[in-house]
Amino acid sequence: MSARHKNPVAMAARPARIEDAPRVTELLRQLGYDRSTDAVGRSIQDAMANPDSTILVAGVAGEHLVGCLQMVVTRRLAEGDRAEITSMVVDAAWRSRGIGAGLIQAAVERLQAQGIRNLRVRCNTKRERAHQFYQQFGFQRTKSQKVFDLPLSTAAESPDSD
């Protein structure tokens, strides 16, 4: 597994803490996710209580947090146990410096220690730079999908009801 980066920096990955919520919120906003700091804090708290969900943050000496990654282990009937990166963002000012690769490597090490043998990531079709990054790291494109969401506030209404 490798990814090329210019001017690599030493970073340290660790599990997220509640007090990281404001900075994680700022990072998520860089990708267009508009969640409140309270909501992000609750997500971090939930991940801390769930052994199948981990949020890692990346710090660089002398700087605040510059990246985060969430991974979730799923126990699927058809595919067995696997992990998926459900969120990952590196501060725009720190991209291409090894932060994302360091976060993924930290995730891989944790997953291997748990006996998980597969890591998946889904990426928006418009994020071509991210596609290249994941492929350079060793991820292989395995499928294309269409995603359908059902807002649960209207789930009780069937398509036939008028």
Give me the side-by-side strand order of the main sheet.
Answer: 1-2-3-4-5
CATH class: Alpha Beta
What's the total number of strands?
A: 5
Task: Compute the number of structural domains.
Answer: 1
Regions with little confidence, pLDDT below 50 for 5+ residues: none
Give me the secondary-structure topology.
Layout: E1 11-15, H1 21-30, H2 37-49, E2 53-60, E3 65-76, E4 80-90, H3 99-113, E5 119-121, H4 128-137
Parallel strand pairs: 4-5
Antiparallel strand pairs: 1-2, 2-3, 3-4
Helix pairs in contact: 1-2
Q: Can you tell me about this structure?
A:
α1 packs across α2 (37-49). A hairpin with a 4-residue loop joins β2 (53-60) and β3 (65-76). The protein has a single domain, classed as Gcn5-related N-acetyltransferase (GNAT) (Aminopeptidase), CATH 3.40.630. Strands 1-2-3-4-5 form a five-stranded mixed β-sheet, sandwiched between helices. The protein has helices spanning 21-30, 37-49, 99-113, 128-137, and strands at residues 11-15, 53-60, 65-76, 80-90, 119-121. Helix content is 30%, strand content 24%. It is built from four helices and five strands.
Give short descriptive properties of this protein.
162 residues; 4 helices; alpha+beta
